[in-house]
Each structure stands twice: as C-alpha cells, then as structure tokens.
Amino acid sequence: MADEEPKPLTYIPETILKKRKQSEDWAIRRRQQLEERKWRSMQDRKLDFKRAEQYVKEYRSKELDLIQMKHRGKRKRPAVATPKSKLLFVIRIQGKTDIHPKTRKILHLLKLRRIFSGVFIKANDGVTRMLQRVEPYITYGYPTVKSVTELVHKKGYAKIEQQRVPLTDNNIIEQELGKYGIICIEDIVHEIASVGPHFKEVTSFLWPFKLNKPEGGLQGKKKVYKEGGDTGNREDHINDLIVKMN
Question: Which contacts qualify for 176-185: CB closer than 8 Å, 24 or more apart?
Fold first, then answer.
C-alpha cells in the first residue's frame, strides 16, 4: 500500500489569529473583572453590616448615656457638705463616640472638649450639678498650691484670638490681664490657688490644660473613684493623678 501524501496544513491568516488572541485575552479579563466585582460586592455587604452594627451600638450607648444622665440629675443627694476647697481641678478621662449630645454639650461648657484635658473651676451648686451629670467621663478634686504651680508652669498656655500661645513672656500676661493687676505667671498661680476676685478672667485667659496619659493608664471603669473606679470626686487624691499626667 502506497504511503498517503500528507495533507497540507490549513493556512490561517495572521489577522484572524490576532483577533482570536484578543478575544481570548478579553474573555480572561472579563472573567477576572466579574470575579473582582463579585468579591468587592461581598466585602461591601460585610462592611455595610459591620457599620450598621456599629451605628446601632453607638445609638444605644448614647440613649443609655442620656437615661443615666437624667437619673443622676434626679438622684436625691444628701446635704452637700462644705467642700474642702472652693477650687476644683477637673479632668476629662473618657468619652469619644458613645456619649449623648446633651452630655457632650455639658463637657464643652466645662471646656473639656478632649480626653485628658483639664480645667480649674470654682465650686458652686451649679457646677456641682453639671459635674454630677457628666460624672462617668470626668474625675476631679482639690488641687494644692504645688499642683497649681506645676500645672501653670509646665502646661500653661494662653488663649489669644483663638490661638494657643505659650506663657513664655510676662508681657503677654500683662497685655491681657494687666488691668486686673495680674502681670506675671506667679500672679496667675496666686489668683487661681486663692480663687481670687478675677478667677474667671484668669481661667478664661488660659487654654485648657493638655495632660499626658497617666503612666500605667486608668482602669477604664465608669465606677466612681471611691468604689474602685476612675471617675468622680477624688478629693485630695487628684494631686497624685496630676503628678502622673503633668
């Protein structure tokens, strides 16, 4: 039997081969795009679910905070004892997103807009009620003259035209407070420590103190200090906390 002659290969034009290759590449890219779109869609759904959970948790926390704030405001208090000092130093130690707008407003009225910020306040009935309403987010007590001195010298800044200006020049103090007879840092310390007649003007002149996170941190408990927590009135023990945060 004679060998059969090999059939010639079918000639395919180069343009057709290029188009076929382009079609295959396009199909691969299209499949990859569909897979990526499907993956992104799944991730978006997961993210939406997580964000929804987060918002629900945040809303519930704010509502719970409002209820607790109202309860604290209505709580029957024993006769208020005469404080050891008219001077209070108040530090905000908690509260970022889980606080109700009414609570946040009180904190802002106290000039405590940031965590670990502190202010000097003159004790009175109105202030006591405000502190009681935001008690889970603050701690306070009676600062000594030494604590006042060290805070003003180390962390003292003036608020001039909404700018934070370091107290490095007594001329700044004299320009702003000279009309009250206050011309230097020591005058500021004395006016605060003695809760003098121009206490309001001096504390308004000062920027809220930006304190450091205390060494070892806080317990993170909203229980009052006397019950083993972080918040509320520490009385004279506020000075120990000031040392750690100054």
Answer: 176/205, 177/201, 177/202, 177/205, 185/152, 185/153, 185/156
